[in-house]
Write a structure and sequence with these properties.
The protein contains 13 helices and 16 strands. It is an alpha/beta fold and 344 residues long. The protein has a single domain, classed as NAD(P)-binding Rossmann-like Domain (Rossmann fold, 3-Layer(aba) Sandwich). The strands form five sheets. It has a seven-stranded parallel β-sheet with strand order 3-2-1-4-5-8-13, with helices on both faces. The model has no long low-confidence stretch (mean pLDDT 95).
Length: 344
């Protein structure tokens, strides 16, 4: 039975990934410091579903603790999902953002190098490593901004441009992860993820916009659009993402040292205004969002080119946007008690 250690395993993506691997018979250890809202509830749900999962309350900024858990558990795979996840938070506290994303990832890589050098390390990077994409021409189409020339989306060959403290900290971690394969021979891989959404996501205004709009629409909370509201992203259901994690494990030797764009791709794009219209129709509500100035570093459009993932991983998204958002809406509606902090 293969062993996996999931950092940030009580977060939105982490709890879905841990459940996925546990359901397939893996020996799962979850590491999390439980600092983010919703992680207590996620961990409780996860342990109810899979009582055999081990939980270690640790912070990835603690290098000695990370070495200890890697030495004790000896996982075959380390799925590194722990991180500071919001661009806006990185402006407010860039030092903490750096220590969590850059130093924390360095600690994990060093722990693997010294204590579990045969482990496969899969790091959740971000599309923000490509920066604001100011050099890429965009035009406004009927359903939001789109690339003028890159119809297939942004490829991994796009020059990196770490715009924002968050982009810098994740970009540093992204490049360290690649280089540890090149210099130390570790089996590492980056997923540059784009707009993941799904169940167990406690989205808030500065991060997780698909979930936040869905939650706010159901609970009657105010919604703000920053900029013109035509910002467009490719969005990916977390159930598709965890499938990608598994196929990466299966092909770990051939993909070591590489980065992959992982998102919804050109077939699963969504702009902010279109999501609001969809929610109005699904929920029979009228949404009147407030408008505010654009936030720094907010790309007008980002869509992944998934060619490399299709070629080297044999992976493409299977869940379309409408089905995925409906699934999320049902979960929010069925678990309204989890959002009591919003209704107080």
């Amino acid at each position: 039975m293969a062993k996996i250690l999931v950092t940030g395993g009580a977060g939105f993506i982490g709890v879905n990934a841990a459940s996925h691997f546990a359901s397939r018979g893996w020996d799962v250890t979850v590491v999390d410091n439980l600092s983010r809202r919703g992680t207590d509830q996620n961990l409780s749900w996860l342990m109810q579903q899979h009582p055999a999962i081990r939980f270690e309350r640790l912070d990835i900024r603690d290098a000695a603790a990370m070495e200890g858990v890697l030495h004790d558990q000896q996982p075959q795979m380390v799925l590194h999902l722990a991180g500071q996840v919001a661009v806006t938070t990185s402006y407010q506290n860039p030092r903490e953002d750096f220590e969590i994303n850059a130093l924390g990832t360095f600690n994990i890589l060093e722990a693997v190098r010294h204590k579990a050098p045969d482990a496969f390390v899969l790091f959740s990077s971000t599309n923000k490593v490509y920066g604001g994409l100011e050099s890429v021409p965009v035009v406004q189409g009927p359903n939001g901004w789109q690339f003028r020339d890159l119809k297939g989306g942004i490829p991994e060959s796009q020059p990196l441009d770490f715009h924002s403290p968050y982009g810098c900290s994740k970009g540093v971690a992204d490049q360290y992860t690649i280089d540890y394969a090149r210099i130390y021979g570790l089996q590492t891989c980056n997923f540059r993820q784009s707009c993941i959404y799904g169940t167990r996501q406690f989205g808030i205004e500065d991060q997780g916009w698909v979930a936040w709009f869905s939650i706010a629409a159901l609970l009657g909370k105010p919604i703000t659009l920053y900029g013109d509201g035509w910002q467009t992203r490719d969005v990916l259901d977390v159930r598709d993402l965890v499938q990608a994690y598994e196929v990466a494990w299966e092909r770990r030797q051939s993909i070591a040292g590489q980065a992959f764009n992982i998102g919804g791709g050109p077939d699963n794009t969504l702009c902010l205004r279109d999501l609001l219209r969809f929610l109005e129709e699904e929920l029979s509500v009228s949404l009147q969002p407030a408008m505010a100035a654009p936030r720094p570093g907010d790309q007008p459009v980002f869509v992944c080119d998934l060619s490399r993932a299709a070629d080297k991983l044999g992976w493409r998204p299977q869940i379309d946007v409408e089905s995925g958002v409906r699934h999320l809406i049902r979960w929010v509606r069925d678990n309204r008690e989890l959002f009591s902090w919003l209704e107080s």
